[in-house]
From TrEMBL:
SUPFAM superfamilies: D-aminoacid aminotransferase-like PLP-dependent enzymes. It holds the Pfam family Aminotran_4. It comes from the Eukaryota. InterPro entries: Aminotrans_IV (IPR001544), Aminotransferase-like (IPR036038), BCAT-like_C (IPR043132), BCAT-like_N (IPR043131). The lineage of its organism: Eukaryota, Fungi, Dikarya, Ascomycota, Pezizomycotina. This is Aminotransferase, class IV. GO terms for molecular function: catalytic activity.
């Protein structure tokens, strides 16, 4: 039987976010509806730190929790060291182990319409590609590994393969579903569905992740929480998707 220490060393907690040199100027224009310091090029950085703290607390990782208790300015300074060219956009993956040892994996990421980083009512570019959104054919069991983002992502990777999504660059997503038929979340995004002229996102009780853009959307009143069942989704219906690297994207349900 695996011990608690061996279980702790078998995965790490993570959070992925965007560094974008165009964010500060745009955030200053919309400071009243953007919850972060407008001068930071890190998208929703405080929410990412809070998300990592919540994961460390859940898994009872005292070393990680102590490291994550540093102030936001120090946290940002730590991440700064991973940016080799501040004139470009980067996809950053913050990785923290149970002992509080952290690293940042930085990869160049394509430029996007900067307005995509703000909640959809502020969206100006409606010509962006529509993502194909599939529904997983097998259930996923909710656990600490679905509520919190970790490197233990086999279930999400399997769901993507079942949907035929072979590359992370594809404009495609798959919705993971619990055994009760409730939509939990997307494999890499938070989904939002329109019902009676109100946007809804699945509640955390369905088993999905407490994402940073999800928190942002809820805080700004863009959406409310409501249980969404897979049999309520209609082929061709439009939805929104969001994550900490790409912001908000349009999606369309593809019911196979």
């Amino acid at each position: 039987m695996a011990t608690n220490s061996s279980l702790s060393s078998s995965f790490e907690i993570i959070s992925s976010l965007r560094f974008d040199p165009g964010l500060p100027e745009a955030a200053c224009r919309y400071a009243s509806s953007y919850p972060e310091h407008p001068n930071s090029p890190y998208y929703l950085l405080g929410y990412h730190q809070a998300r990592l703290r919540a994961a460390a607390n859940h898994f009872q990782w005292d070393g990680a929790l102590n490291w994550l208790k540093q102030d936001l300015q120090s946290f940002e300074k730590f991440i700064d060291a991973s940016i080799s060219d501040r004139s470009k956009a980067w996809r950053l993956r913050i990785v923290v182990n149970s002992e509080g040892e952290a690293r940042v994996e930085a990869n160049p990421t394509p430029s996007i319409d900067i307005m995509s980083l703000f909640i959809p009512p502020l969206q100006t570019n409606q010509s962006s590609p529509i993502w194909r959104v599939y529904i997983d054919t097998q259930p996923t069991t909710p656990s600490g590994f679905t509520t919190h983002k970790t490197t233990a992502r086999d279930e999400y990777n399997s769901a993507r393969l079942r949907a035929g999504i072979l590359s992370p660059s594809e404009p495609a997503e798959v919705l993971v579903v619990n055994s009760g038929g409730e939509i939990m979340e997307g494999s890499i995004t938070t989904p939002y569905f329109l019902r009676d002229n109100v946007w809804f996102t699945p509640p955390l009780s369905s088993g999905g992740n407490a994402g940073t853009t999800r928190r942002y959307a809820l805080s700004q009143g863009f959406c409310q929480e409501q249980t969404i069942f897979r049999d309520q989704l209609v082929d061709g219906e439009l939805c929104w998707l969001s994550n900490g690297v790409r912001g908000f994207m349009r999606g369309q349900i593809v019911a196979k």
